[in-house]
Design goal:
228 residues, 7 helices, single chain, L-fuculose-1-phosphate Aldolase, alpha+beta, globular
Length: 228
């Protein structure tokens, strides 16, 4: 299936189905958002949504500067009189968008291999050229309670230098892109890199596992290559 075009919520719903099917998360283990073009607002998954069951009514439109929601039809799914509220992690998304005007989409997941490596005190190795191309570098944010302003601020500070992949210790990851598709691909590559790193560790060879050559990463930086 080609990547969906049109409504950005349909693209996020596609990501949700894929990451659950691929085993990156369990059910509601994460949240997704996308910045609306030409507008200082974003669609973000609603509180309590399961990522493999998303549709257009599963998203809330939120103003990036002040976090206010829009009282539109998306907040009142058919048959409900109660407003939908954004994910409890909305502060993480908004702080990142404020810090990085170039970011159009954020994929926040709870991938098992990424979190296991971090809990064991090991970093994810960028093994292949795909890992180098999509991830470049991975930053780590120390544990802060989910949904807090402190976590949101730490994450925003960690990406100001252009980093697009964060490990949130004992919590999850936050992966950024200039499109939903690019953020999605980065999330998939991050978990794949973590899985390869863990397999090397299980074999007792992690410290022998080389990262993607530094000269390749430097070449990518010089070229400014950053696409799907």
């Amino acid at each position: 299936m080609n990547y969906p075009q049109g409504d950005l919520r349909d693209q996020l719903a596609y990501v949700g189905r894929d990451v659950v099917r691929s085993g990156l998360v369990v059910g509601s283990g994460g949240n997704l958002s996308v910045r609306l073009p030409g507008d200082d607002s974003c669609w973000v998954t609603a509180s309590g949504t399961w990522l493999d069951r998303l549709d257009r009514a599963s998203f809330v439109r939120v103003r990036i500067p002040d976090g206010m929601t829009y009282p539109d039809e998306a907040e009142h799914p058919a048959g409900s009189t109660l407003p939908v509220t954004p994910t409890s992690e909305v502060a993480l998304h908004l702080a990142t968008y404020r810090a990085r005007p170039d970011v159009r989409a954020i994929v926040h997941l709870h991938p098992q291999s990424v979190l296991l490596l971090d809990a064991l005190g090991e970093r994810v190795r960028l093994v292949t050229t795909d890992h180098g191309f999509y991830l470049r570098r991975i930053a780590r944010v120390p544990f802060r309670p989910p949904g807090t302003a402190e976590l949101a601020d730490l994450a925003a500070d960690a990406v100001r230098d252009g980093t697009n992949c964060l490990v949130l210790s004992q919590h999850g990851c936050s992966v950024l892109g200039d499109s939903v598709e690019l953020a999605h691909k980065r999330a998939r590559n991050l978990e794949e890199a973590a899985q390869l790193s863990y397999r090397a560790m299980a074999a007792g060879r992690l410290h022998d596992l080389p990262d993607c050559p530094a000269e390749f990463l430097a070449r990518l930086d010089r070229m400014g290559t950053d696409t799907v």
